[in-house]
Amino acid sequence: MNYLLSGSRAAASSPPAAPPAAPHSPGTPWKSRKYSLGVQGLHEEIMDFYDFMSPRPEEAAMRKEVVKRIETVIKDLWPTADVQIFGSFSTGLYLPTSDIDLVVFGKWERPPLQMLEQALRKHNVAEPYSIKVLDKATVPIIKLTDQETEVKVDISFNVETGVKAARFIKEYMKKYSLLPYLILVLKQFLLQRDLNEVFTGGISSYSLILMAISFLQLHPRIDARRADENLGMLLIEFFELYGRNFNYLKTGIRIKNGGAYIAKEEIMKGMTNGYRPSMLCIEDPLLPGNDVGRSSYGAMQVKQVFDYAYIVLSHAVSPLARSYPNRDSESTLGRIIKVTQEVIDYRAWIKKKWGSKVNLSPDLDNRMKIREQIAPCNGEQQQNRDSESPYNQHLTLSLTSNQQLSSGSSASSVSSLSGSDIQHNGMKFSMKGAHNHNQGNGYNPVSGGGMRQPVGNRGHHQYNRNIWRRKKHRENLPISLSR
After folding, report:
1. pTM value > 0.70
2. Which of 91, 106, 342, 357 would give a disulfide with 481, using CB separation of 3.0 to 4.6 Å?
3. Residue whose C-alpha is closest to residue 204's, from 167, 169, 249
């Protein structure tokens, strides 16, 4: 089964040596040089985006201060309580405006949400109108915005799954050194479309990371544990898989035991309390019976914007695109994501205020070492791949045997992906993954292809859902910063 583009290990044509750096255009501050052609250039640009958007030492220092302020209030109430960080701040996979997730462990019959809310108000830790107690949520939490930094914080009680999930993700970051690069791009992509949180109809960061891990586990053509794979090709193939090839109606995602695609009927057997598999069904590798995508009611909007990104990027890196005039300042990655000036100003403000307080943390130092391991995807090895790159020839339909899937995948996994039958050159295929790039439909019962502006895409700008209020004591903290 071949649910990805045909061809060998991802690569792009080896262009002449790049000229000196070109100035970046608005919205693409990571772009400081002229990139190679095709997917090789996209690979280079993703690396630069990662370097630009990765957490900086002063940003980590600022967040630690926020955690310390809240922990002081908690310890004042309950001296024996244990406060732990989880989520993106723990894994290092956070954008400059991401939330901080905290969990408080202690001995209570019920989570003391109201008691902590009152204490936080009393100590003026949070913005006065930002504290909300969500006691009816699946996991009861307190949401607040830090008074000094406007960083948003979610606080839960006695929930171990978040801490375990952070450890789980860190293990896979060690296994797949390219995973953080994909995640930061995908997070920014969903953020600017307001599809990065469950309560706004999007998907959680945990769901997104599990989708990316599954994609790397079951890739039929590459060994994703290698550090010299082409990130541009991987990103396009991720969008292709979850934007048009994956059968959301029938199939669930399994991470454990090497990964597999599982029929939803099989997953439902292990679910409790009358739950049924959701549209985006992801088995929780840490909590049997839990569907991580259960609350993502806007999963089909996410699918739609992934499909849109696949079309935009695959066209941008195709040989046909080289026939059109292209300004040096243009960005391939910038066709689907942007970074606002407000974010740039916010990071400058953080650097000014916390730059003198930083110490290089072990996590950040480790991420820098990982960055050094990522090969540039060029040279002799790159030239050997040129002739086999799917974007250096006509996009063709290619079927691979079931054995090319991960060993964790099974025959039932393949059959669960079956969708609409495909007619191609007189042959009839019933394999979900074998889609014809020249067709806009017929490969997925959920939706057809074709170029369109998706519902979830509200412009290629990180638009501003929360308007910052300028305050004198904040030393000109930038206004109008989106989350």
Report:
1. yes
2. 342
3. 169
